[in-house]
Amino acid sequence: MHAFLKILTLFAVPSLLLIAATRQPANAADWAQVTENDRAIKISTDQLEAVIPKKSPKQWMTGIEKGSFLDKATGFHEVGDGLMVVDWLMEAGSDAAWSDKVIAPDGNGVGRYTWYENETDPARREYALMAHGSSHRKRMVEGPQLCHRMKPVQPVVTKANDFIAVKTTYKFEYAAPGRKPGSQWTQLIVFPQGKRYFVLMDKIDSVNDSPEMFLRNDTPGCVRHEKGDTFSEMYLSYLSGPNGLRIPASEFFSPFPPDLKFGYRRDTHKEPQNFIRAYHLRNKETGAAGPWLAGLTLDPAVVYEAWCSQRPGGIIVMIEEIHGQSVKAGESFSAAHIVGFFDDIPAMHNVYNRYKGNRAITVDDTGWHLVK
What we know:
It is a single chain. The protein has 372 residues and is mainly β. The chain has a single domain, classed as Beta-galactosidase, Chain A, domain 5. 7% of the residues lie in helices and 42% in strands. A hairpin with a 3-residue loop joins β4 and β5. The chain starts with 5 loop residues before the first strand and ends with a strand.
């Protein structure tokens, strides 16, 4: 047994204290290295590489940095704008009556969401409807959009015998009329030894009440392509029965809004047995098949809404919204995901079945643990 040098308190949920231990065993470097500078943290394990930005990201500030997620077994990378990217804290409802009042304190653009309800420019309105749909109004509770306007952060790295964990926290800076800012977002990412995936938790500690609060993210992430040159098919386990839905790349050659097809809503769909979203990579130059890149949301009941839609400009957006339940100030909610490379769909389900039902992650002196 190695001595533990320092215990760092991470966060708390009702009836559960989540903590992390910083330990530096002699053999940690045998399978993983951590390289950190003032811009980012690079994790290189025996199976993966990934970069977590601190400032000046290549695309977004949250999640895994664009193009950095590498499967060492095959040489394939993620082909979107990063993985597990986080947006606003939101709720159901329209902000049309006061959207012009939700302005970022630094003046860096607006924090409103459904601005297109009052939009008069046809091109801007068309793009907004294509990006967000028109059937389910939603509005921001707190901002900024973290992926886009989050200030520099200083993640905490935990090194252990058989895993590396990185924890990032941030407090929302402004709020919608009648609300206050200050809810805290925590993202905890665990890279286990010997695995081609990482385990991730997004958690919100709310300072506001809401009848239907949710956090929006990309699970696993968007896909950049031209006529399917980077992927051959999508897999959505929660649609079209127990075997899920396999969608050829040709379905994404033309733009369509999120509420037209391939969407999921808790209030219109039966709760599925699992919630897996994946795309089958292929070599852009040769067309050769690669691994699947999948995002597994470990408790299907935590998903409020999810879509897989083609926006103009060659980007498939894989938005997922978690929680979508009543929240009181002082309460928390979270979701746990597994994101990584898999050889086939059965391999995804094997991992899913092993960890199904969990919504949080703990890191302590006994290791990392998924908890319900």
